[in-house]
Amino acid sequence: MSAQIGVTGLAVMGANLARNLARNGYTVALHNRSIEKTDALLEKYGHEGDFIRTESLQELVDSLEKPRRVLIMVKAGKPVDSVIDQLVPLLEPEDIIIDAGNSHYEDTRRREAALAEKGLFFVGVGVSGGEEGALLGPSIMPGGSRKSYESLGPMLEKISAKYKGEACCAWIGTDGAGHFVKMVHNGIEYADMQVIGEAYDVLRSAAGIEPAEQADIFTEWNKGTLSSFLIEITAEVLRHTDPRSDKPFVDILVDSAGQKGTGRWTVVSALELGSPTSGIAESVFARGLSSQREQRLLAQETLKGHESSVELPESFVEDVRLALYASKIVSYAQGMDMLGAAAKEYGWELKLDEIASLWRAGCIIRAELLDDVMKAYAGEDRPANLLLAPAFAEAIAEAVPAWRRVVATAVQLGIPVPVFSSSLAYYDGLRRKRLPAALTQGLRDLFGAHTYNRVDAEGTFHTQWSGDRSEIEAVDTH
Ligand code: 6PG
User: Fold this and answer.
1) Domain 5-175 architecture
2) Residues forming the annotated binding site for NADP(+)?
């Protein structure tokens, strides 16, 4: 018996993907650096399907049908290169190496190009859904060459999550496109969690609503337009009481958020692309600030807030829901806009409707909203920005008064709402007729002769600031 796919790296994610493949009827060859993990998996779950136990990469490769498919699930970075280096001499042209970890898309581009020279396919695959998703059906975002997808696609589609029967897996684009899209998914995940956190903070700090009661509010919200996995699990976490202290579980957690790097990568890439992804950036910075515990302790004693009291409107809880919804839409709009910019930069034909459709089930940001995002980008009339799609323009217009009230209230009470407020600033910036960027251009021209364009004439100009202040036509140095 030969295996249809081999999996190397059997920590939880790798093990669960291997089990998912086997449960779907594929024969899976297993390999791990230490054989104990392989044996543990076989002992516990060997009955779930057809597995082949292998003790070395050579044995793994020998056990595979051709063209071979080897899925790597090891820590991103050097470990991936190390496994690739060991595998390459054992493989033949047309064989496929699949990297299903959270690798940086630039690494994936580099690896794909290097392996293509050897006639091998390298496919960077974004996989989302955590441990449970890997086992029961994740959202899958494969990059690499289109040809590799012919052999790999049916398998990945079979093990992926399904949204109303549709597989949450489709070929995203060449080389690192899959990992890029997964990275942006994670950036949006950061923003989603941050806006949930801001809603929780405002409800608690401004309106005094305790976690258990908030759990009911989030459960209610989960029935409407905010319906999503993250809102659902927010209710679960807020409802939980710590058995050791009998306090709300959220109160015994140290308030410093960790991060493995994908959110940060998204922001670095957004900056490089010149894409105004402020919601994701503020979410990453908010995690950074939360982790500066020493400074925060000093500041709590030293820095004054001068908060003023605010009378909350009756509609406050609903206001917060709308602020959360509007900010969430802005984060998605920014993420999608960034994908558009990346498609141009890297020559990918990213289909934004399809990407939104893959995120409707299986992944961490799965949400009702994504079905609407998909519909907004489907068809000929693709909006220049998600916010301009009629359904979203209307939804935001309805939310704006409440959104402004919540941001104003939070500002007056000294409650930080970086994503609520920066998303509102993005929205207002986008719709504003004249931006102070005009003044920025004037300043740049004065101190650095950086030139400017006029609203009333074609061409590029410079004012001779240190001379007679007459204007000359200039070479564009924008
Ligand atoms: C997923 C998640 C996952 C990510 C974790 C942790 O889609 O399944 O995005 O890939 O690694 O959520 O991310 P942070 O540690 O950076 O929060």
Assistant:
1) 3-Layer(aba) Sandwich (3.40)
2) 9-14, 32-34, 74-76, 102
